[in-house]
Fold each of these.
Amino acid sequence: MKFLHTADWHIGRKLNGFSLLEEQEAVFLEVMAIAKKEQVDAIVIAGDLYDRSIPSVEAVSLFNTMMVEMNLKSGYPVLAISGNHDSATRLETGSLWLKTQDFYLQTQLSQAFEPIEMLDTQFYLLPYFEPFHGRQYFQDDSLRDIQGSMKLVIEKMKESFNPKKNQVLVSHFFAAGSTKSESETTLEVGGLDSIPIEMLLDFDYVALGHLHYKNAITKNEKVQYSGALLKYSLSEEKQEKGVRIIELSEKKLTNTFIPIKPLRDVKKISGSFKELTEPDFYDSINREDYLAITLTDSAVIINAIHELRQIYPHLISLERVQSEQRRRESTKKETNFIQLKPDILLKTYYKEVTDKELTKRQSEWLEEAIIENRTEK
């Protein structure tokens, strides 16, 4: 079995106000070219197809065009799941008849236990889910974190393992020890938020989504993120983007990363206003890239951002050296505060104000409110 592993398309995403639909369409064409060149048997998309639970009309139109090209015209079986940015309810519309075209789009925990069998491989499609979904499905109120639910999920999946076939898990979560970047939404509600890699080793390959960096996991080749197709924040400036080509033959794994070149890159540049407005400088770079500029001038420059945008149309930020240094110092001071989980932060505040702990029911309300707030975003 040979398949292409991708994830975190985030169709409809914007970068500092700039729509990325054009870039997303261009990078999709590269994905299709890779799939054809590598002669893959299927394409796996591990969640976050859209950037918002209620995507724009333009985003939906682009996704539909992509799937028509990938599945109907090119004939690739598609195995996809919903991520934390997707609306599971909206995304599952039409999923029953999509299966007749070998387009498997799963959005509910209950669907994950019946494997999709292709050639010599069983695919288990596990969409993003919260701890309360695990409690509901397994009818077990003791499941307070994602680890407890995942243990039962994997045990149930293993009941249908065919020893003569490969087993692939497709899912969307934070694996313990992974490296995050600024553009990912933190998944931390109600206790432990990560899954130990050791829990996943019964699968021959685990195709993950959620983290945008292809090297977020370095410990085990069997458990990997594909990374996003585009750079969605400045923190990803140095990251290589692309897809993975996975080949499984008699339980042997070949994992190859193939880079993709974006229509416009995300970069940082710095210099004085005079240097940045010199033709010798700006003709030496791609002015169409998404650029974050740091000015080294100490003097006030009137209308600097307006003037620079005449040369660099996709300018996403403008800072001075001094302000950037202050921002870094401020970030260090706020690190401890930012790293607190939302539920712990609110519980601590409640305790300080009332001198009481939240009741069990109040804790459940809090967890539900945090989940609802994230979904609305």
Amino acid sequence: MERMERTKAELPEGAGGTGGSGGARSAGGAGEAAGADTAGAAGSAGAVRDRAMTSFSPADEVKRRGVRRMKLTATGLLLFVALVYVLAEWASHRGAGAWAGYVSAAAEAGMVGALADWFAVTALFRHPLGIPIPHTAIIPKKKDQLGVSLGEFVGENFLSEAVVRQRLRAVGIGSRLGAWLAVPEHADRVTAELSAALRGALTVLRDSDVQAVVGEAITRRADAQEIAPGIGKMLDRVVSDGGHKRAVDLIVSRAHDWLILHGDSVMDAVQGGAPGWTPRFVDRKIGDRVYKELLRFVTEMRDMPAHPARGALDRFLTDFAADLQSDTETRARVERLKTEVLGRGEVQDLIASAWTAVRSMIVSAAEDERSELRLRVRASLLSLGARMASDAKVQAKVDGWVEGAAVYVVTTYRKEITSLITDTVAGWDAEHTTKKIEANIGRDLQFIRINGTVVGSLAGLLIYAVSRILGA
């Protein structure tokens, strides 16, 4: 009894706030409730507390006020049972009836339960009464360890391959995504978002950078790849299929038309190349003869698919295709020609202008809601959504892709993800973290104090009653 009286007398002294700012900060739940008003006005301690409070959100402030109210309630209940105990003891010494013993036992046990739970709750956040008792102020001391444990818990129970696969498989992303995409409004939205992203990406990219990269990539790829064998195979296939004949027809037809229109030019060229000692009329006759023979040759070649010249051209192209594939000298000459062509500034300018034209075309198509590009994308999304919503195989493929990607991320970057938790907790201020946690769970913890008082009183009453019955 005397020990409990001393404990009861010590509690207000350590928690009342008259002992200075240190006592106000370190006191337990009962002390903080009794000294909150006086401690708030204490010089530098009040300034420190004000600065700490500025880091709390309005919602946190509401929770902190709720915790303070519950602390006052729990402390008030403790003081109430203490008063009941004193009055019951006084009545018992004054010769009151047996009821005083029952009330005294219940109140005494209630005080014990209240003080024990006050100590337990306070020890989570700070040293009770400011005394550095071992295994108290658990949260400030174990903050970093709690962060590591929380990170490990998340990694083992939320970021494991089995959990990720199970949750994603239960969601059925393939069917849900398909049903969502199959709605025209949703397909329009996705198309618009993709168009905006494409426009943004192409707008951010600098033409000079892209042109340099594309030009270098094309040049490097062309330099590394020998083109003669490929050209030879393609030419051999074209000749075998007769695909070159239309080109020959076009060339011969254009040559015939040119000769008809420029006969004088041909004769002048022949006469200009004749020796100076030949008579002019001889030069004219020779020029006229050459022109007529040339026109006859071109006309026959145009009109006769089996013309010998056409056959000779076929044989030449066939032999040239074979040389491109097997003749070392021919292949070397083609490679030298390729290098010379790629090195010319005109070719590089052509590559650069091609990118500019392609970019402008894509941006314009992305901006136009009725462009072929956006219409095709929208139609593809609707078709994909319909298939995903109805085809189990497609759903399984999509689910497999999503599961694989998610599993890869969580297995590859699990440490980085959990370290985000541990590093964040480690970077928190211990005092602020303690207050933050207390603001969120402190109200429920005060109910533990209240329950401890009530349950302790009932247990004390029961024990006292049993002891009286057995003693009788």
Amino acid sequence: MQASPSKARAQALESHSWSVVLSWLSNLYYPSPIPSFECNTTTLRALQSLMTENLAVERTRELLYNARIEELVLATQNGEQIRAQPPDGSDAGSLLSLLESYLPPSSKRALDSLANSAVLLGCHLSPSSPASTPGILQNLQSQILALPRQTFNLESQISAIDTLTSTLSTEIAQTEQCLSGWSADPSDPETTSPPSSPSPTNTRIDYSALHDQTRQHQREANQLMLKSAEYKDRIAALERQGAGGASAQTIQGPTLTDLAIKQDLVERKKKQAEALEKKILAFHGLPPDLEVSRAEVLRAQTELDALKRRRDELFEKMGG
């Protein structure tokens, strides 16, 4: 009985598929024989899918192999060109960059830490260094071992500087305290510093007579103030009497003009007394004797000059 054309075509297609699969299996298992298996439609489809994937993988592998061969050829040609050119440091830098790009993250962090430590410790290694020069690891080791000694030296210097600073501060405070005892208080307007050296005008002043005259003026001023108050009371009483309509009486005693003159005299005496008091205060309680006062002024001037020299020496030490 003759089969239909469609069945014949299907059988021919299946036979061709089996031949292709068997050929692939024979190449795959060569030189071993193909293992036995059940020949049916499901097995055929499974083997066809495996064959397709295997062929695709082999094709990809072949393409990669060819690409690597081409890269190797190009690298060989570039190497020959580089060897023909004079050497420089650019290829070494590119090689180092390439090596660094292939490092894992932990190795990159370790390399960065090593580079930072080398830079901070001053371990510079130039490419032109001779082979006998110690490497960067040896330099790092020596620098790290020297760190405690350097730290101790720096701490000792800092402590010495602190001690010197505290000593200078104490001496400056003592100097300022001594100077404040000799300098006048700028907030007191009535206080003036004594003259640095006795002038010819001051040597002709009789301090004892000046003091007695001042006391006499003070007594006169007090008496005049009392009389002025008495006269003011009498004037007020007379004014009250005149306002009350009392008969005019002859006033015995000084007139208003005399009182005004006396009051002006009292004011002048008070001003003279204040001027004399200020002049006495300017000498800060110096003794009345002229020679003793002059010796006291010279002694104070000498001590002040010594303190100034001491202050200048301290400032020079601080500036140095």
